[in-house]
Amino acid sequence: MIQMSSLNSCRVYERLAETECAAEGIRPGGLALTERAVALCGFPQGSRIVDVGCGTGVTLRHLTGVHRFSAIGVDASSHLLHQACFENHDLLFVRSIAERLPFPDAFADGIFAECSLSTMNDPERALDEFQRLLKIGGKLIITDVYARNAESSGQLSCMPVECCLKGAVSRTNLLERLSCRDFRIDLWEDHSDLLTRFVVHLVFSYGSMDEFWSRMGLKSVDLNEMNRTISEAKPGYFLLIAQKTT
Predict the structure, then answer these.
(1) What is the pLDDT of residues 105-135, one digit of tens each?
(2) Contact in structure between 129 and 101 (CB atoms under 8 Å)
(3) Where does the record place the Methyltransferase type domain (predicted)?
(4) Which ranges of 66-152 does DSSP label H, i.e. alpha helix?
């Protein structure tokens, strides 16, 4: 079942969703990091969970089927949600941008944003929405790319492609954003090895990263310059759990 709101889409994720790379979700670590986060948060059965940037519904299916949570998937892409609904007839999906979620205050016990915060047009506004949506004591789970070289992170925003790398920020930047919204950081774990494995998998699947970017539609882009920008930022990957305190 799908409900509607207003939005735009993220093209790289739409293209990846059509490949075998999306079998366990379009992100490094797949469901392994999801499961680790669930175990650490200790949500009881029936907890109300919102998966923001749910894509084709891989995590949502896991949260409802394995853990018996009352979970809702949200995504901005009609393409991904139609695929999600086709594969998961019994799950609830809502088409909406994260910056304007169609739920009341203190609605959720937990929010998952798995490799999605960095793709949002206005992550500051999205974090405001997460804070509004969570109950006091509710948990925000983020897995995403970050820039280990903070000095070069600003260059990523100029990349000519809509993907998680373009919105990656430094660890310090993200923690400051959360702190000023009264989130307490319960966990930060570096999982950059999973990003490396994901990239290796893409290389094996496509032959090279240049070919991957070409398949994603970047046929007239200076890939050498783009790859240099990415390399200088030293992308890493993390799992973060934060709790709403007030």
Answers:
(1) 999 999 999 999 998 999 999 999 999 999 9
(2) yes
(3) 50-142
(4) 78-87, 123-133
Range of the domain at 30: 2-244
Q: Which secondary-structure segment (H or E) carries 183?
A: strand 183-190
Residues 112, 84 contacting (CB under 8 angstroms) = no
The CATH number for 155's domain is 3.40.50.150
Helix axes 123-133, 171-179, angle to 10 degrees: 40
Amino acid, single-letter form, for residue 153 = S
Pairing of strands 134-147, 235-244: antiparallel
Determine which helix (DSSP H) or strand (DSSP E) holds 113, and give its type and residue range. strand 108-114
Q: Please state whether the predicted TM-score (pTM) of the whole model is above 0.70.
A: yes
- Domains contained in the chain, number: 1
pLDDT per position as a tens digit, 18-44: 665 544 556 898 899 999 999 999 999
Rounded CA gap, 170 and 172, in Å? 5
Sign of dihedral through CA atoms 218, 222, 223, 227? negative
How far is 231 from 38, CA to CA, in rounded Å? 32
Sequential DSSP letters for 45-83: TT-EEEEET-TTSHHHHHHHHTT--EEEEEES-HHHHHH
The residue type found at 13 is Y
Say how many residues make up the chain: 246
Report the alpha-carbon angle 35-41-42, nearest 5.
90
| Torsion angle of C-alpha atoms 119, 123, 127, 130, degrees rounded to 10 | -40
Q: Return the residue matching tokens 């919105």.
A: 167
Task: Tell me which residue has tokens 């492609």.
Answer: 161
